[in-house]
Amino acid sequence: MATDSGLLAYLLESLAPLGGVTARRMFGGHGLIRQGLMFGLMFGLVFGDDAYFKVDDANRPAYAAAGSGPFTYTRAGKPTALGFWLLPGAVLDAPDMLCDWARQAVAVALRAAAQLATKGAAKRGPQGGPQGGPQGGR
Fold this sequence. Notes:
alpha+beta; globular; 40% helix
């Protein structure tokens, strides 16, 4: 596979059938974004010659079975894993499979965004104020 810009161009071209896939420079690499909603729909990272897609319990077993592993970085002297796993080479080399795995990663991002929204709504309470009390306080 080509280096950073080549891999990114390949991913964007291969993922075009999904519609709305763009990239944004971040964290020394690129985030893959669908329909411009980075936080709600961010589903992949590209660093150098590696691509990582978002995982959860639904799609992580396929990555593990392919011998993949999580994206990690060092924080406070300790390795920290994120919810993104290395995309296996066999998937990168097969555009149809790549799109399937990307669709799964987008679904993971949607589930994660929905969970965050639910947690936020629970903290705000039924009328947008703090849980268990009226809104306002002026």
